[in-house]
Amino acid sequence: MVGIAMPAPDRGVLARRDEIVAALKAIVPGEGVIDALTEMRPYETDALTAYRQMPLVVVLPETVDQVSRILRYCYENEVKVVPRGAGTSLSGGALPLADGVLMSMMKFNRILDIDFPNRAVIAQPGVTNLGITRAVEHEGFYYAPDPSSQIACSIGGNIAENSGGVHCLKYGLTTNNVLGLEMVLITGEVIRLGGKHMEAEGYDLLALMTGSEGLLGVVTEVTVRILQKPETARAALVGFPTSEDGGRCVADIIAAGIIPGGMEMMDGPAIQAAEDYVNAGYPRDAEALLIVELDGPEAEVDFLLARVEEIARANRAGYLRVSTSEEERLVFWAGRKSAFPAVGRISPDYLCMDGTIPRRELPRVLAGMRELSVKHGLRCANVFHAGDGNLHPLILYDANKPGELEAAEAFGADILRLCVAVGGVLTGEHGVGIEKRDLMPEMFSEDDLKQQQRVKCAFDDKHLLNPGKVFPVLHRCADLGMMHVHKGQLAFPDIPRF
C-alpha cells in the first residue's frame, strides 16, 4: 500500500490461522467461510482501489446467532474483525487486515417487514439501497437517501458511513431516515436501538451508530422511514460561464428560502464526460452546470421554478432548460448519477474525494482547487451536492506512472485542508476510513480525538472492531481512562470527585 500505514499484523494471530479458521467453520458450516487465497481475492479492497490487503479469512454469516458467536469468539481470542457490506466504500472503510477476520454481511439480504401505515421498512443490512425503494414503489413510496451507488451499496454500509445522495438536501442523510437498529457488540451481545416510533428514550445511541464506520458494532437489522412520492417533480438544467457563477447561484437559491428536492453541480470536465457517456442533453459550452429539482404540489413547483430562473439569470446563467416529462427529468439525473463511471472513461484512475464546506464558500474553494490542480500537475473534475456544500472532486491520475498516486493523494489532502480552513469538515458522507485518517488532526485537537476514542472504548475495549481506521493514533483504553494532570494541576479542580 502507498502512503497509508496500517497496524502491524499480530504474529501470534497469524500463527493461529488454522485454529481460527476451524473455529469459524464450526460456527458457520458449509460455504460460509472462505480461506483459500484465490477465493479471498475479491475482498482485498473496497471502492478505494488504490489500497489492497488480503484478509486473514472471510466469513459470511446468515443468522444473528452466527454473528453473535463469531464476535464472541473473536473477543475472547483477541482476533480483529472488519465488518463489510457491498464494498462500495470510497474511504477504505472495509479494507481488510492481514490478521483480521473480514465479516461480510451480504447474506443478510432480505426485507423483513413493510409497514405502510407507519411508513417504515425493516430490512437486513445486505439489502441494497435501491432495493428498498423497489419494494415500496408500487404503493407510491420511496426511500429518500439515494447515493450514486444506490444500485449496489447496502443499507448496512449506508448506516456505517451516514451516506447521502442527490435528494438529501431536502430529505436528509441516512441519519435522518433511520428509525431503529439491531446490532451485535464485539462481546456477542445483541442490542436494539429505536424502532418504528420517531423518538426513543435515553441517550441517542442510534445517531451515534449512524456514521460509526464499523468501529462500534455490527448492524444486523435496520428500520428506515419511507416517504410518499411528491405530486410533482421537475428538474431544471442551468448552465453558467464559470463555476464561481454557479456557486453564487446555489447560495442565492438557499438564501431566498427555497429548499430544492435536489441541487447538484458539475464543472466543465465532468459535464463533457457525463454527456459523452449518457447523452443527457447537457450544454457542452458551459463551465458549470446546476441540476435543480423542485417537488411538491404542481402550483408550488411552477412558482419556485420561476424564482429559480430569476436567481439563475441574475448570476449570469447562459442556459436554462426545464424538464417537461418524468422521462426527461430522469435523463437529467442519469448524467449526474453516472458521473463517476463517466469520468472513469477519460482517466485510467481517479480518487473520489469528499469534503463539505459552507455554501457561501463554494466560489472560493472552486478557485482554490484550480490553483491546486496546477500545483500538483493533475486534472480534476468536480461533481458535488451543491445544496449542502458536499464536494466530490475527482482527481485524475495514472497509477502506472511513478509518483502520480502520491501526487493525487497530496492533491486530495490539500483540498480537504482547504475545506477545513474555510469552516468546513473532512467528510460529508464517505466517512474517514483510512483515506482521511491521518488528516483528522487538521480538524480535531488531541483532546477531541481522545474523547472520541473514549466512546469507542465504551463499545470495544480491546480495539478489535475495524482498527486502523478513523484515528491516526489509537490509545489504549486504560490510558484514556486515567485522570489527566497537567503541570501538577487537575482539570476543573473545583468539581467534587468521589
UniProtKB/TrEMBL annotation:
Keywords: FAD, Flavoprotein, Oxidoreductase. One of its GO terms (molecular function) is oxidoreductase activity. Residues 51-229 form the FAD-binding PCMH-type domain. InterPro entries: FAD-bd_oxidored_4_C, FAD-bd_PCMH, FAD-bd_PCMH-like_sf, FAD-bd_PCMH_sub2, FAD-linked_Oxase-like_C, FAD-linked_OxidoTrans_Type4, Oxid_FAD_bind_N, Vanillyl_alc_oxidase_C-sub2. It holds the Pfam family FAD-oxidase_C. PANTHER family: GLYCOLATE OXIDASE SUBUNIT GLCD (PTHR42934). This is FAD-binding protein. It comes from Pannonibacter tanglangensis. The lineage of its organism: Bacteria, Pseudomonadati, Pseudomonadota, Alphaproteobacteria, Hyphomicrobiales.
